[in-house]
């Protein structure tokens, strides 16, 4: 039996997990920054109306 | 105990915690990458294939450290949850909840890589033996903690409820660890015992494993700090320090 596909798949799963784990808190901060910026812009627009 | 509590409470200030976490995070990440690269090189390139299992045994360099992490992170989550329940530290609540998705990820990696290792070794991807089933229960416990935290609208109440569930789930950890001794399982018994010095594994395979164990620990440290920082900034987004973190000196005026 050829073991290579099982080894490659295992390391690919591990790499995918590491990428997700690295990216998700950074994306959460970016989303929060975008949301707060948009909210501040909305309040500013309402004030200037 | 008092000195420990004093040290612990000094990190109770979200702003101070954020500052310290930001300083340590790149170091932990750097150590994780360095030890991981060396560990994988020794395991995949320099290390021999197993005399019985052949090349598929190379999966162990991620499967075993991931399995160790799944237990370690659960223990950490329960400890942080205990601190959150007893001393009501906001940072401890957020750390416990930040650890849950990382632990769930490592548990999922353990189950998937174990399954991929099982197919060429045992001839099947899955059997309902004690080790595999108790590890699957651990994944469901992580999902339960994450689900309970997100189901309750008040995040502080949600974190405390989820912490209680994490503490109850602690009972599963000795079951996972001793399952191969207590029951007749298809999963092999423990071949590594670092503390008693009775490992039956060859040093050419043991050292890459130890390095990978350190790499995953450092990775967890860096990831935990990043996730706790993000949660803290979100939780305190109305405060001046969190606005400064997000927008710098040119923050939007609402």
Topology:
The complex is a heterodimer of chains A (49) and B (254).
Chain A: H1 4-48
Chain B: H1 2-10, H2 14-46, H3 60-87, H4 90-122, H5 130-151, H6 155-169, H7 172-182, H8 203-235, H9 240-247
Helix pairs in contact in B: 2-8, 3-4, 3-6, 3-8, 4-5, 4-6, 4-8, 5-6, 5-7
Structural write-up:
The complex is a heterodimer of chains A (49) and B (254). Chain A has 49 residues and is mainly α. Chain A contains 1 helix and no strands. Chain A is rod-shaped, with a radius of gyration of 21 Å. Chain A starts with a helix and ends with a helix. The model of chain A has no long low-confidence stretch (mean pLDDT 92). Chain B is an all-alpha fold and 254 residues long. Chain B is built from 9 helices and no strands. Chain B is globular and about 60 Å long. The N and C termini of chain B lie far apart (45 Å).
Q: Top keywords for this entry?
A:
heterodimer; A: mainly alpha; 1 helix; 0% strand; rod-shaped; B: 254 residues; 76% helix
- The helix content of chain A, as a percent range, equals over 70%
Q: How big a fraction of the residues of chain A is strand? A: under 5%
Helix content of chain B: over 70%
Q: Give the ordered list of helices and strands of chain B.
A: HHHHHHHHH
Task: Supply Rg of chain A.
Answer: 21 Å
Main sheet: strands, sense, barrel of chain B: none
- The SS-based structural class of chain B is mainly alpha
* Strand content bin of chain B: under 5%
Mean pLDDT of chain A: 92
Task: Give the tally of β-strands of chain A.
Answer: 0
In short:
Chain A is mainly alpha-helical and 49 residues long. Helices cover 92% and strands 0% of the residues of chain A. The longest helix of chain A has 45 residues, at 4-48.
């Amino acid at each position: 039996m050829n073991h290579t596909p099982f080894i490659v798949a295992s390391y690919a799963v591990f790499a995918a997990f590491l990428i997700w784990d690295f990216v998700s808190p950074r994306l959460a901060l970016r989303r929060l920054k975008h949301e707060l910026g948009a909210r501040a812009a909305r309040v500013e627009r309402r004030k200037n109306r | 105990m008092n000195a420990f509590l004093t040290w612990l409470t000094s990190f109770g200030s979200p702003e101070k915690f954020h500052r310290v976490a930001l300083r340590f995070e790149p170091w932990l990440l750097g150590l994780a990458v360095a030890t991981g690269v060396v560990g994988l090189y020794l395991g995949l390139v320099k290390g021999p294939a197993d005399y019985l299992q052949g090349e598929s045994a190379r999966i162990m360099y991620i499967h075993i450290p991931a399995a160790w992490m799944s237990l370690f992170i659960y223990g950490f989550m329960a400890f942080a949850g205990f601190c959150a329940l007893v001393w009501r530290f906001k940072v401890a609540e957020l750390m416990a909840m930040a650890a849950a998705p990382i632990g769930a990820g490592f548990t999922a990696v353990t189950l998937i890589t174990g399954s991929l290792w099982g197919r060429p070794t045992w001839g099947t991807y899955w059997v309902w033996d004690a080790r595999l089933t108790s590890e699957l229960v651990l994944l469901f416990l992580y999902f339960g903690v994450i689900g309970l935290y997100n189901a309750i609208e008040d995040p502080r109440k949600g974190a405390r409820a989820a912490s209680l569930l994490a503490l109850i789930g602690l009972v599963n950890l000795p079951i996972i660890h001793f399952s191969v001794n207590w029951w007749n399982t298809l999963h092999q018994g423990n071949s590594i015992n670092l503390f008693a010095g009775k490992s039956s594994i060859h040093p050419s395979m043991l050292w890459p494993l130890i390095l990978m164990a350190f790499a995953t620990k450092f990775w967890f440290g860096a990831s935990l700090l990043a996730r706790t920082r993000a949660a803290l900034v979100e939780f305190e987004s109305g405060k001046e320090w969190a606005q400064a973190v997000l927008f710098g000196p040119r923050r939007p005026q609402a």
